[in-house]
Amino acid sequence: DDLYSFKGIPIGCGPYRVKSFDMDKSSVILERTKDGSGPKKVEIYSAGKAWENQVDIAMGSGISGMKDHAGTEYTRVQGKLPYATEIIDFNYSTPEGQSADFRRAIAFAINKENQVKGYAGEIPTDQIITALSYGHQKPKSIYNLLEARKIVSSLPSSLKKLTINIMYHGVSTEPHPPYIIEILKDLEAIGFKANAIASTKMKLDENDKNVSMIIHGRVIDSDPLMAFAYYLPEGGFPFQNPKNDVKFRSLFNSASTAESIESKARIIKEISGYFQINNIQVPISERYPTYYIKNTIMDIGLDKNAFDINIENISISQDSSKK
User: Is the overall model pTM greater than 0.85, yes or no?
Assistant: First the structure.
């Protein structure tokens, strides 16, 4: 059940080979082959163990807690392009998910600027395609607490009395993360009772009929149209897509058969606008890769790869005794 521990025997690739690994410590030691470039020896630790092991480079979920050490022992470096989006998806099998007014109220109520405070590499957005993709437009904030309250006041009494259960990817024995607490506050501010449920699940299923929404991250595909494919009936998320949406299907088909990138980008903009107007879901933020590096590291090669780092591109200070 521990997603951050190795399930099998790791192997090397490229110029690096596995010298040893420790299942208990979730660590791997790599050694460079003779004809390779980059550091001669690399120790890799699982997420959450960066500070504990005094790593030279922290990345991914390993950056948790590292900001306290920035400016003293570590320098924060951010990638140039987003790699994922954080999204609120509605449960369309529920009355609230099927209510356009309910979804609209939620879209107005979420203060995205508050959600991303304290999260390195998170930038508020209003669309599921990012600055990396063609068809993307400059994000706008629609946060409007008064409008959200007005909409809620006109909802049927059955929805007004609803306790909104929100599922997110997390550990049930740990406190809710700050961004979840902020979302609960936003919902309570417009008159709803709200409850957060930590789960290892990444999507809703038939056992989640009491869940109104799910918050999750989605990695960007090279084709921006794929961001919308998840919301088709055959997209693999049957409880998180609108049912029988003829307009969306027509737009998607037109984009997928467009004869030029220009035509496809124009239609993708139209799809994105359609999602925004109808609040098919509520995008929260674009996620940019963030790293914390020690002074012994001269360069991690982000000019060669904006999304991730390649071990071969890491440069170490010549007078460093570090590996």
Answer: no
